[in-house]
């Protein structure tokens, strides 16, 4: 018995060590990014910085906040993330609920169209022509409207709403509730895990997206933070002399392109990191909160 207990403890120790190593390997890139953002750019070029800043400075953040282009791109990303997440969650929930109802006519045909778009698309050029025909090019709404309904989210919502007991919906209808009232007052209140997951995925997708800003927007005032970071990284890679790159970005010659990028990445992590703890609790809860057992 003691031998078995010792073996179990040894296995537990090995598992904990592996988990700790995995956590360190996963989190260290984020930590290193934040570390570089607080270190002097020219000093960082010397290397040898792994744990603590060698020459602590806030000039990188002062440069980031003081640059109107970075600041404006940050607010554009915030605006598109909030607007896109709200609209995507609302429209996807309504569409998913409608397709989950057994009394919906041509339900299989609608589902086929949804699944078809998951695997096949018209291509970049036809999509560009479509957006131009809709008048969405070079507007803020090109970030939001195309993503209001996501096929993968719809299929996930169909599976979730189909698992809700029919007795809940029938009881609401007996009390005189209409379909929209059933959705808003009965279905959605017990769908918090799905809504939280959908909102987080939609928010992360909107926040990290830069292709739409690169292809469909020319107005510099509509550039997002992700696109601004991408262009800065490309400019840095295209610059052969580090001193020249630092001179292009900072007049004080204390910040480099890399430290500015690290600062932008550190700032871009903040919104998602602030939102995730409030949504995490719904991921570990049962998928049928408050449901009536059949």
What would you say this structure looks like, in words?
The structure is a single chain. With 294 residues, the protein is mainly alpha-helical. The chain has one domain: MetI-like fold, CATH 1.10.3720. The protein contains 14 helices and no strands. The chain has helices spanning 2-37, 41-44, 59-66, 68-100, 107-119, 124-133, 151-162, 166-174, 179-187, 192-208, 211-216, 225-238, 242-249, 257-283. Helix 10 (192-208) runs antiparallel to helix 14. The longest helix has 36 residues, at 2-37. The chain is globular and about 70 Å long. The two termini are 45 Å apart. Residues 74-271 form the ABC transmembrane type-1 domain. Keywords: Cell membrane, Membrane, Transmembrane, Transmembrane helix, Transport. It is a multi-pass membrane protein. This is Lactose transport system permease protein LacG. The chain crosses the membrane at residues 12-34, 73-97, 109-128, 140-161, 182-204, 258-279.
How would you briefly describe this protein structure?
This protein is an all-alpha fold. The chain is built from 14 helices and no strands. The protein has a single domain, classed as Orthogonal Bundle (MetI-like fold).
Topology:
Elements: H1 2-37, H2 41-44, H3 59-66, H4 68-100, H5 107-119, H6 124-133, H7 151-162, H8 166-174, H9 179-187, H10 192-208, H11 211-216, H12 225-238, H13 242-249, H14 257-283
Mean pLDDT: 82
Give helix % range.
over 70%
Radius of gyration: 25 Å
Beta fraction: under 5%
Separate helix tally: 14
Oligomer: single chain
Domain ABC transmembrane type-1: 74-271
Family: Belongs to the binding-protein-dependent transport system permease family.
Organism: Eisenbergiella tayi
Subcellular location: Cell membrane
